[in-house]
Amino acid sequence: MAESKRTTLDPADWDALRTQGHRMLDDMFDYLEHLRERPVWQPAPADVRDKFQAPLPREGGDLAALHEAFMQDVLPYAVGNAHPGFFGWVHGGGTPVGMLAEMLAAGLNANVGGRDQIPVEVERQVARWMADLFGFPAGASGLFVTGTSMANMIAVLVARHRALGLAVRDAGLAQMGQGLVAYTSAAAHDCIAQAMDLTGIGRSALRLVPLDDDYRMNTQALAQAIEDDLAAGLRPFFVAATAGTVDTAAIDALGTVADIAHRHGLWFHVDGAFGALAMLSPELAPRLAGVERADSIAFDFHKWGQVPYDAGFILVRDGELHRQTFAATPRYLRREPRGMAGGSPWPCDFGPDLSRGFRALKTWFTLQAYGADRMGEAIAGTCALARYLADQVAQRPAFELLAPVSLNIVCFRFMQADGDLDDFNAALVADLQEAGIAAPSLTTLKGKLAIRVAIVNHRSERQDIDALLAGLEQMAMRRLGSSPPPASAGTP
Question: What is the model's pLDDT at position 417?
Fold first, then answer.
C-alpha cells in the first residue's frame, strides 16, 4: 500500500521558520521605534499597485520573499495611523504590547463564538471591567465586535426587541414594526442611520435632532420631536446620544437626554465610539456624567484605547434582554452541562457572529500591561494637545478656529487666500498629506470647509502639532507665492 502524501501546512524546518519569524518581529519593532523618521503617508506608485494585479498563485512561495514584499510594497503605503503625525480620522495608534498579544491570539487561533474555554472567560472579564467602569449592574452584558458601527446596530436590535417583544424575531417588522421612530443628533455618525437601514426599520424613521451652539444635540428640540411623533400616533423607541461627535468631539448632555428618554420609555443609547473611554481619565470622566444611566454603550478599544484594530465593544445594561435578542439553539449548537459544550450562555448568544476571533486578548493585555490610570493619562494628554493647537491657531491671524474644542478635535481653516476658501483649504490638506508631514482631514461646519485635526495617537507630542502648523503655513505660502508670515509672540 502506497504511503499517503503529507498534506500538513506546518513547516518541514521549524528552526528556519523560527529564524524568519524573529526577523519579521524585529522589523515591526524597528518600524514602531522609528515611526517619526518616516512620512506619515505617501501615495503608492503605479508599479507597486501593478504588483497587486497578479493572478492567484498556484504554487507556494518563499516566506522570506513574501516578508520582503510586505516591507517594500505594503508597509510604506498604509494609511499611517500609527504615526504621531496622523490626525486625519479617529484612528488609534496601536502599541507594541497589543501587537504581541495579537500574535499570541493568532497562534492560539481560538474561535471565541462559544464553548467551554478560557478565551471566553477573558472576554467576560473585560466585560465586567467595563461594566464597573461605566457603573453598570452585575447583570450587564458585553461583547467584542468589529467596531462601533456593529455595536450601534446591536443596540438598535436590542431596543427593537424591548419595544416589540420576542415575537418580532419571527414575525418581523412588516407585521409588527409600523410606526417605530428613533432619534439622534444631526452630528451623529452615519452608522446610526445605517443601523436603522440594516435592521429593516429604515433611515426615514430616524429623526436628526438639530444642534445647539456647541454642536451638541438640542435637548429641547429632542423633547419636542418625541412629543410631535407621539401626537401623530407613532412609536418612539430609541434615542442615541453621542459622547465625542465625529466632527468636533462634542459630548451631548447625557443626563438630560437620559431624563427625556426614560420619561417616554425610550431606550437610551450612547454612541461613545472614542469618547466613552474618557472614563479612564479622572480629569475627563465628569464630562460624561449621565453615561451610567444608559441602556447601552458602544465604543472602540482601537481608538483612544490604542488596541490594534479591530476591537469594538457593546455594553448592555440588561444582559438577559441582550441574550434574548440573539440567542438560538440549532442542533449543531447544542449546550451540555459538562464537556466542551458547557459554559452557556456563549458569546454567540449576544450577537450575530458565530465565528469570532480572540479580540479580547489584545484588549486584556493592553489594560493589564499599561493599567487604566496610565491609559487615562494618555487620553487626557491628547486633549491637552488639542488645547495647545487651538491656542496656536488663535495666535496666527491667517487661521480661524471654527468650533469650540471639547476634547481632542480641533477644526479651523486658513483664511488669507484669494478665491474659494473651501477649495484652497482642501488643496492645502492634500498638499500636506502628500508631503508626508502630517495628515489632518476635512469636514464641513455650518457651511464652511474645516481642516479637522483629531489627536488620538498616544505617540503625538507638541513637536508634531508644531510640524502640522508649520507645514500648513509653508504649503499655503507656496500656493500663494509668498513667504511664510512671521510667528506671533509665543509661537514656536
Answer: 83
Q: At what angle do helices 421-435 and 462-480 cross, to 10 degrees?
A: 120
Report phi then psi at 290, rounded to 5: 105, -20
Distance CA 44, CA 434 (A): 11
Short-list 28, 99, 84, 63, CA closest to 302: 99
pLDDT in the model for residue 483: 54
Please count the CA atoms within 13 angstroms of the CA of 313 that sit on its side-chain side.
Answer: 30
User: Would you state the torsion angle of the CA atoms of residues 285, 289, 292, 295, taken in this order, to the nearest 10 degrees?
Assistant: -120
Which residues, 6 or more positions from 14, have their beta carbon under 8 angstroms from its beta carbon?
A: none
Per-residue pLDDT, 111: 96
Q: Which grid coordinates belong to 195?
A: 443601523
Q: What distance in Å separates the CA atoms of residue 57 and residue 366, rounded to the nearest whole number?
A: 37
What are the C-alpha distances in Å from 431 to residues 419, 428, 471, 475?
18, 5, 9, 7
Show the DSSP H helices in 3-117 as ranges: 14-33, 46-51, 63-69, 96-108
* C-alpha dist (Å) from residue 227 to 142, 211, 236: 32, 18, 9
What are the angstrom distances between the C-alpha of 167 and each of 164, 170, 267, 269? 7, 6, 18, 23
For residue 114, what are the CA distances in angstroms to 29, 110, 141, 352?
33, 10, 15, 13
d(CA 463, CA 460): 8
Residue 251 DSSP one-character state: B
Grid cell at residue 141? 452584558
Which helix or strand (DSSP H or E) is residue 370 part of?
Answer: helix 359-394
Name residue 236's beta-bridge partners: 181
Give pLDDT < 50 ranges for the chain. 485-492
As given in the structure block, the three cell numbers for residue 87 are 490626525
Amino acid at 278: A
Beta strands in 285-428 (DSSP E): 296-300, 312-316, 399-401, 409-414
pLDDT at 2: 62
pTM confidence score: 0.95
Side chain identity, residue 96 = P
